From TrEMBL:
Keywords: ATP-binding, Kinase, Nucleotide-binding, Transferase
First and last residue of the signal peptide: none
Keyword Nuclease: no
Xref: PANTHER family: PYRIDOXAL KINASE
Species for this entry: Malus domestica
Protein name as catalogued: pyridoxal kinase
Domain Pyridoxamine kinase/Phosphomethylpyrimidine kinase: 118-229
GO cellular component: cytosol
Length: 334
């Protein structure tokens, strides 16, 4: 039997989001990181009560899971202790299995989406099929916004097969609407080194020329300073509006910050489609509030935040997701 994948349909007045990632099966009712990406999108859209979950190995053969299974589970998350096991069993979903799920969506007349969100993808087969999914969804809605977090590695190290880099660079980037790479991933996609703010801005321009109108390099380490650099090219051929946000360094390691950042950027850019600066300010301010709450909770429980990877306190931080106080401002480049 094929491993399950989580695809969430989030109906609302403003849109529907389909999230796709390939994962090893884990000992949780749903893939944990995937779920939180979509849960955050729901919160930002303030449509959590309308969440429909499509979670099954063979979607076409089984009915849509009742949302009452999902929402109480999220509310009770603060009582769940996520046990870490030394080994995991299962498979990474391949392209054929993904396409079967898409056929299930089509059979249930669930192919209209305003947004497609992709994160970690572990094989060329799966990534190639994602491109087919993009074409399929755009045949139904030509205005589909494709938000791609090109998860490939960090700090000079790849954690996906090398052959995925070329597929991202040559085939995925041209069809994406928004890209959210980190510094290393932006370097891979542009075949360039980013050693200054100017380099970061130029990398954004190179990516605009290849396809996406919105690029957010979510973390760039320049001379010991951590920055986010955003770029929005509102019309082809015109200069992009570019900005930076200085991000404080927190001496701890968190699980899922990349997923969290992309989910928040998707949610806030949907609310402010012509103002990527504001969307980024809200996303960064929300993220920092969540991280600080997480550290505070671990310290209160007597744990050293530097000793282990920290699970982000999402349920406890719903107000910081819905209505973050903007504490981190964008500085526009001129």
């Amino acid at each position: 039997m094929a491993p399950p994948v989580l695809s969430l349909v989030l109906p609302s007045e403003t849109g529907r989001v389909l999230s796709i990632q390939s994962h090893t099966v884990q000992v949780l009712p749903i893939p944990f990181a995937d779920f939180w990406v979509n849960f955050l999108v729901c919160l930002v859209a303030e449509k959590l009560e309308k969440l429909e979950a499509l979670l099954r190995p063979r979607l076409a053969r089984r009915p849509v899971m009742d949302r009452t299974i999902i929402y109480p589970w999220t509310v009770l998350e603060s009582r769940i202790k996520v046990k870490r096991y030394p080994t995991f069993k299962g498979q990474v979903l391949n392209g054929q299995q993904l396409w079967e799920l898409v056929e299930g969506l089509e059979a249930n007349e669930l192919l209209y989406y305003t947004h497609l969100l992709t994160g970690y993808i572990g094989s060329v087969s799966f990534l190639s099929t994602v491109l087919e999914v993009v074409n399929k969804l755009r045949s139904v809605n030509p205005k589909l916004t494709y938000v791609c977090d090109p998860v490939m590695g960090d700090e000079g190290k790849l954690y996906v097969p090398q052959e995925l880099v070329a597929v991202y660079r040559e085939k995925v980037v041209p069809v994406a609407s928004m890209l959210t790479p980190n510094q290393f991933e932006a370097e891979l996609l542009t075949n360039s080194r980013i050693e200054s703010e100017k380099d970061g801005r130029e990398a954004c321009n190179l990516l605009h020329a290849a396809g996406p109108s919105m690029v957010v390099i979510t973390s760039i380490n320049i001379n010991g300073n951590l920055l986010l650099i955003g770029s929005h090219q509102k019309e082809k051929g015109l200069p992009a509006e570019q900005f930076k946000i200085v991000i404080p360094k927190i001496p701890a390691y968190f699980t899922g910050t990349g997923d969290l950042t992309t989910a928040l950027l998707l949610g806030w850019s949907n609310k402010y489609p012509d103002n990527l600066e504001k969307a980024a300010e809200l996303a960064v301010s929300s993220l920092q509030a969540l991280l600080r709450r997480t550290i505070s909770d671990y310290k209160s429980a007597g744990h050293d935040p530097k000793s282990t990877s920290l699970e982000i306190r999402l349920i406890q931080s719903q107000d910081d997701i819905r209505n973050p106080e903007i504490k981190f401002r964008a500085e526009r480049y001129t």
